[in-house]
Amino acid sequence: MTKLVYYVAISLDGRICAPDGGFEAFPMTGDHLEAIQEDWADTLPSVLYDRSGSTAPRERFATVLMGWNTYAAGLSMTDSPYSHLEQIVFSRSRTAADVGAGVTLTREDPRRVVAALKERGGGDVWLCGGGDLAGQLIADIDRLVLKVNPVVFGDGRPLFAGEYDPTGFVLESSRTFQSGVLITEYARMRPPM
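^ that's the sequence the OP posted. Answer follows.
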């Protein structure tokens, strides 16, 4: 069964990026990067594979979903950040001319898009960000994978934006690294039948 997985880096205070969209405050070195390369290689930008002459494994994900701000954060490196995956960008104000080759821009309801992707099957769907999109999709997220970084932002975009609506998840695993990063995995708490 295809799952929607929100895999994202966050600060200790639950921010996915600075107010200006930057994420430079997250540690870019450390032993946690080896685990990401081994376990979450599909989430590395295609430019890294292109530079090394290797190919992305596509073992976990078939599709990546991004809000416009998340997509725009990678435009300095490439206009097709995850060309090894089906890329879907959500925006109400941009047009197809604003995205690179191999990137689908849509104004559709994100919940309908996710329902269609789950129905279609195949690899899992990676929700890359941002917080507004995650807030719209909270009811559809099957797994949370949080790379908790040892830094407090104080301000910035939250992990989830939206109205108060408690949603339960169950901790499945947690790994601690010398870098101070924690990678925690949660599954959606399902009501008893």
